[in-house]
Amino acid sequence: MTRISFIHTGAVVIPTFTELAAAHLSGIEVHHLLDDKIVADLGRDAEGTGVRERLLDLGRAARSAGADAVVFSCSSISGYAAGLSAELGIPVLRIDEAMADAAIAAGSRIAVIATLATTLAPTAALLRERAGLAGARPELHEVIVAGAFEAVSGGDRARHDELVGAAIVEWAAQVDVVVLAQASMAGAAATVEGAVPVLTSPELGVRRVAEVLAGSGEH
């Protein structure tokens, strides 16, 4: 049986990916690995705290457990995917790549909303990378929602969603598409009705994983 290992930087998204995998990855075994200090260490000293080596170790653990592919569920670490895939010898997929492609297709004015700078920067970089491949030059607006990360870290999910929802409404009036940079922000999108697409990575990303596996004959 094909096995997929999701590597997470926060436990809060594991139920979401378990549910999405059940819906879109039928017949595939799902394995979860977690390092919940990576995002904090990226913000302090990625090299000094060995983030790349830790991700490589998690990837090796996934491979040892029989994983046919690894999926990074966090945009903050997506930039490490290509290099680690070569070292591990199995695909390392980025959960936010499909979201980036959908955003580029949706319009030329894109607002990228995040609650952490460590996630905003790599998401914006990914959008520029995918835009370049598509021959597009979008106008990117990079937005940090002040106080949202602190709220959810303190257990106040409602306040987090309220703050993110307000940012979505504000920017939806100014752009063609809104991108939420973190998988953990997906719940906030359901709290507002926007006039433009509001894209989140979990479902789009899992659908892309299914497409990749189907293309490789493993699904």
Automatic annotation (TrEMBL):
Signal peptide: none
Pfam family, one: Asp_Glu_race
An MF annotation (GO) of this entry: amino-acid racemase activity
UniProt superkingdom: Bacteria
Family: Belongs to the HyuE racemase family.
Protein name, as recorded: Asp/Glu/Hydantoin racemase
Organism in which the protein naturally occurs: Occultella aeris
